[in-house]
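Input sequence (64 aa), recorded before submission:
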Amino acid sequence: MADKELTFEEAYEKLEACSEGASKEGMTLEETIRALEEGVKYYKLCIQLLDNAEQRIIRIEKDA
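Predicted structure, token format:
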């Protein structure tokens, strides 16, 4: 990950890029595996960011 925290949108874009990269023709097995590993990292980050957003929404609803 970069020096700054990624937003959900940025992480999702990177996840999509990894997915597209992993399915490109002509990639070596090692390149495909690296793209998949990176994609999993961004998938987990997206899930974490969505969970955090859900918790914030729950807190807002409780306070309302």
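Checked by second reader. The mean pLDDT is 92.
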